[in-house]
């Protein structure tokens, strides 16, 4: 009898959603900031059938007076055969941009459905989606959140200033309030909670870790940083220039542009040599500027050429500081190709081989090709979310106020105040936008005393910004998150406290 009632309620929810969101001929679009539809599904993960419900809809953002100023679209997956919801982890997932919807990790990484793409992540037709046998839904419930103006999320009060949403600190503040509402409505206060963010989403979730603690009194068990930004950590010109070299080396290795003795090594066996040179020789050399004599500069340039696949002459012309846009254009210039910004395995073709930077981002064009049809198909057809609003893969959120970005320090303070809080960092070796070595550098600078290094871990993958698009890395990266969640859950009776070791 319960199953029949549930089905009727699901169908009723669908009917309400259609009438609320879908316009008819001759009427205006009306955005509902508080409206959901629930459907029932299952997925086989690691050989086990997992039943779950999916809730797709909107939840309000209120101002300080309780007035609705926006509605955020979300998709929430909850495993339905779990009896003890209090001990069931909840993962709250954000992508980045700023201005990007949550579609990327939702439909290609941790969710129960993933794109139909080839094993390396390239688009195939016909477009579609399939079960994700690697989803983390077996160990945690997941909610994917679209910030204002992304996905189906919209501002409802046109008089509200955009500065309320579009900035590092504004974004963190209103999203923390929204998370409180979501957790309260879905009775998840007792659950262990995790944030996961990708790209600019790592800035977002690092800031949220502290904001949730200090303004919402909500304490987390973990934060997962996928392809992290600099998190507000100042590099300086010389350090910023030098830290790119290990990424250059990884990309050159992939495209077979390194000398034979390096090319014959495995990628992860080759990179430590480059990393050591970067930290111990290159940063000091660039810092010297004009004080660096020609006799000192030439061997440094020679080593950079050896590791980067670029000519020594080109490196000297740039005074050891090779811009990343130029690298993407120069590395395969002799072959008539550019390499992708977010994933340098992808190749582009420019109008002309001359120039200082590529005409377009080859990888992003490919990904939009792969993602846009399936997310629109999936939300409307499988999750029954009926609307004529456009799903914004990237929405209008500019100008974005980037001031006061100290999110690495926010995350450090949250960890210091919460002994339960752990951090996992995931990076693709071929990501040129948020490169893997800068992600390591973040960890070193965030915790310079090394007091929390036992609660911080890093994983690298042989792909780019969205490492999970490569089939082998999809399996590995999800498993790393799964194990991170399981290991960071406190043992029964384990208190959140520091102890002096003797």
TrEMBL record:
Lineage per the UniProt record: Bacteria, Pseudomonadati, Bacteroidota, Chitinophagia, Chitinophagales
GO molecular function: carboxypeptidase activity
Superkingdom of source: Bacteria
Keyword rRNA processing on entry: no
Signal peptide: 1-22
Keyword Hydrolase: yes
Keyword annotations of the record: Carboxypeptidase, Glycoprotein, Hydrolase, Protease, Signal
Record SUPFAM superfamilies: alpha/beta-Hydrolases
Name of protein: Carboxypeptidase
Pfam families per UniProt: Peptidase_S10
